[in-house]
Design brief:
By secondary structure, this protein is α/β, with parallel strands linked by helices. Helix content is 30%, strand content 21%. The protein has 14 helices and 25 strands. Bound molecules: flavin-adenine dinucleotide. The site of flavin-adenine dinucleotide has 32 residues, from helix 1 and strand 4.
Length: 509
């Protein structure tokens, strides 16, 4: 028999990472009379920026756009170290009293919407005591990030049990890993490998980046001279907003250029890389990907640190494939051998939709891939719930801020009109839906079919475009005919599992 939880909050936020903390601040600022709680599975806040501890861990976008819209980033470095980002998140939580609302060690397992009661029942497991905790909530805001915390992606390399040294995944970096004076092989070519190689190069005997295929790498200045100059002459918020918009415009233009004129973008990137490499370096083998820029995320190299390590001879790149690990290192498909004392498998993340929460509407389990995202933040047929998912072609927080602004507007609108339920209803014919995350990267392709999907047209299409999202989410009509509001309990619009997007549509690529 269904029991009503003893505790009720107006809004329940899942996750106390960059976006969950931001969500708490937005509620505090825009909906101050609403009660809320944040359930966090781990024993600390900060999410990504607390979990990852590998050498050199840093952002790969600028902090003027990865920072919150409401709290200036004042550090001179625009591409910032993980520790500085974690401090910023913690200080923000403290400044807005959000830290008082966080319950650590609470992993949310399930959330059930009951149309008769117009509320969610959320079940969490206490990761410290294994007790079960239940809360009810009027609105659910899922800020759980996009990947598994319990394990990164590590292919099963043959012979790995034979290798005599440590094999480390960057997601689980041992505090005491000693690589000084040792030969290190970093397997991977993504943002993590590009960060790790120069960071380890000065202490290690040598670092080899072993990549199966190259990525696009571009150099950006670690410090933003314009931002630092503006901060000296303008009030902090004015300086921050000016830099933020400058960077949004530059990012949007460079993304559009890459998508519309990929050959030109490739030529520009190649020239930038070639200029920084030592004479005679084989640019095409190691830095010429087979795909177009932004089919996968570009790798950022602050102040050209990777290229400096290559020029100094402290690091090198091998483009080849692992045949097998051996006692002394790695035997490659080409027949060459790489000797190693330490191997780092920077092979990526395992994606996870909605923090693995089992979601049900009126007792029926939700099949996420059968749902379309509404404005990239709600799911068709799922009332009073939003997900905070950032951009893949720009800083994550730009979108998460807009998502929270929209949710706060929605909550205030509902209160003003006495509505208790808001649900995006997808009506009519099948649509040819697309994956939610539109990147060709291996880590995306491995799991994207477990995520909700996007439709071909607004409001179901995910627009990876901040200026357009400002128009839609900050300024757009809430009562757009797709979002249905109701005051009385009724199950009419809350679609049971599988009913929101016809099966044919979900299957269509
Ligand atoms: C190394 C690294 C560098 C990155 N650099 C950038 C960058 O420069 N720019 C950029 O835009 N993006 C970057 N990203 C993406 C990055 O994850 C986001 O920018 C941002 O930190 C995500 O914040 P989040 O709060 O949404 O998710 P997360 O940081 O993943 O936090 C999610 C939180 O939710 C908790 N949680 C998850 N599931 C549950 C559950 N079921 N119950 C309770 N709690 C749960 C987790 O424990 C975690 O604390 C990077 C990612 C990595 C891994």
């Amino acid at each position: 028999m269904r029991t009503t939880p003893a505790e009720h909050v107006d809004v329940l936020i899942v996750g106390a990472g960059l976006s969950g903390i931001g969500a708490g601040c937005h509620l505090h600022r825009r909906c101050p009379d609403r009660t809320y709680a944040i359930l966090e599975a781990r024993d600390s806040i900060g999410g990504t920026w607390d979990l990852f501890r590998y050498p050199g861990v840093r952002s790969d976008s600028d902090m003027h756009t990865l920072g919150y819209s409401f709290r200036p980033w004042r550090h001179p470095k625009a591409i910032a170290d993980g520790a500085a980002i974690l401090d910023y998140v913690r200080e923000t939580a403290d400044q807005y009293g959000v830290d008082q609302r966080i319950r650590l060690n609470h992993r949310v397992l399930s959330a059930d919407w009951c149309s008769a009661e117009m509320r969610w029942t959320v079940t969490a497991e206490r990761t410290d005591t294994q007790d079960t905790v239940k809360l009810s909530a009027g609105f659910l805001l899922v800020c759980s990030g996009y990947y598994r915390y319990d394990g990164g992606y590590a292919p099963d390399f043959p012979g790995s049990d034979r290798f005599a040294g440590p094999i480390v995944h960057p997601q689980h970096w041992p505090e005491d890993l000693d690589y000084a004076g040792k030969r290190v092989v970093v397997i991977g070519s993504g943002a993590t490998a590009v960060t790790l190689v120069p960071s380890m190069a000065s202490a290690a005997a040598h670092v080899t980046m072993l990549q199966r295929s190259p990525s696009y790498v571009i150099t950006l200045p670690e410090e933003d001279a314009v931002a630092n100059a503006l901060r000296r002459v303008l009030p902090p918020m004015a300086a921050y907003q000016t830099t933020r918009w400058k960077n949004v415009v530059l990012m949007t233009l460079s993304y559009q250029l890459s998508r519309r004129w990929p050959r030109l973008a490739k030529a520009i990137i190649r020239k930038g890389v070639a200029l920084q490499l030592p004479d005679g370096f084989d640019v095409d083998t190691h830095f010429k990907p087979s795909y177009n820029p932004w089919d996968q995320r570009l790798c950022i190299c602050p102040d050209g640190d990777l290229f400096r390590a290559l020029r100094r001879g402290e690091a090198s790149i091998v483009t080849d494939q692992v045949q097998t690990f051996t006692e002394q290192g790695i035997l490659l498909r080409s027949g060459a051998e790489l000797e190693a004392d330490v191997i780092i498998t920077a092979t990526g993340l395992n994606l996870l939709a909605l923090g693995g929460i089992e979601i049900a509407v009126d007792g029926q389990q939700l099949d996420l891939p059968s749902r379309l995202t509404y404005k990239g933040l709600m799911l068709s047929g799922v009332p009073n719930a939003a997900i905070s998912i950032g951009y893949t072609n720009a800083s994550w927080t730009l979108k998460c801020d807009l998502t929270c602004e929209y949710v706060c507007r929605l909550l205030n609108h509902m209160r003003e009109h006495g509505y208790r339920q808001a649900v995006a209803v997808h009506e009519g014919k099948s649509v040819v839906s697309k994956p939610l995350i539109d990147l060709a990267s291996g880590y995306v392709q491995r799991s994207v079919d477990k995520f909700p999907r996007q439709g071909p047209k607004k409001p179901w299409r995910l627009r990876q475009n901040y200026p357009l999202d400002v128009m839609a989410l900050r300024l757009g009509e809430l009562e757009d005919g797709v979002m249905r509001f109701s005051r009385e309990a009724s199950a009419r619009d809350a679609a049971p599992a599988g009913a929101a997007v016809p099966a044919a549509a979900a299957a269509a690529g």
